[in-house]
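Journal club prep — side note

Before the paper discussion, L.F. wants everyone to see what a predicted structure for a comparable chain looks like in token form. Sequence:
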Amino acid sequence: MNNLDNYINRFLTFENPFFFALILSVSIIGVIILIFYKVVLPLQKKFIIENQRFLLEKAELMALFAEMDPEPLIRTDTSGNIIQTNEASRKIFSNIEEKETKINEILTSLENESVNRTFIENINGKIFSVIAKVYPQLGFTNFYLHDITQLKKYESDLENYKNKLKNFADKLDKDYDELKKFVAAELHDDIGQKLIMIKLKLSNLEDYERDLIQKDLETVYQRVRELSRTLKLSEVTNLGLKISIQSLVNYISESSRINGSFEFLGKEEKLNSELEICIYRVIQESLNNIIKHSHANEFSVQLELNEKFVNIIVSDNGVGIPEDYFDAQEFKSTGTGLFSIKERIEKLHGKLKINSNQNEGTVLVIKLPKEGAVHAKNKIAVS
């Protein structure tokens, strides 16, 4: 027994390193626990409280701005329940119940309320642009509504005006073509016949006078024929594209003394008259541009009809088109040169590509859908 007491007394002394280390460790742990409960834990609680107060103040501030906002604003929780509205939104949704109504019950176009997005919503006969803004750190989503009814009306009115202008332009084109048919017929049937009769009557005059007058008369007669050919469209629909354009190329080549060639690819077929006239006019105006501006001695026309498109290539070996031409007023003026060609092509939903280098000639590449004229008419009718 004495030995045990002696052993315990010797162990529980500060002279024993193990006992001293044990007491020191327990003391340190106790101090740490005391510091945690007396210092760290209160600071942590204070931080949480301050953070919550900050978030609450921020939410209250946002709520104040929302209430003052003249645009409708709705706030939901993470489950899509409406938790707050402003006065502007309550005027739109008079029977809204903030605590029981789901956001997708009043905004039916909404697919996912937890994602930032913008969408269009029809509400009580008005059109609204809705912006959904998610605030995950605050646990709510704001829906900002902006009335765009008037804007949509302006867009609709603008589209209607564009369609009316297009209809008006189409009518002008049609009336213009009818006028050209009339003038062409008058030139050929009336004035042309009278010129022939004058030539016959002049044959009885003296040789000297007859030669002078007949020379001038022949010039007038050729000019009348030229105008008649330029204005006349019936040969396109009656003879077909291939023969009409071959005849046009031959005439231009002979009258201008520029060597011209024509190549037709694909199967010859009857297209709708509006498309045929467009093709003829585009090629005719392209060749007129070559005569007036290119200083070329050769030109070529290639016409291809495939299953869906009409492809046209008109090229020359002339001086080319100056780089600044496309910015010039001449190009931008309606009805002049390439601008007129471009307008005709775009009217039938076609495409025009121009390749030209100084002193290396010009190539016009044109692509027209076979149903372009029909589609253009249908589009106007539907609108």
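L.F.'s comment for the group: The beta strands are 73-77, 82-85, 117-123, 126-135, 140-147, 259-266, 298-305, 309-316, 351-356, 362-369. Keep this in mind when we get to the figures.
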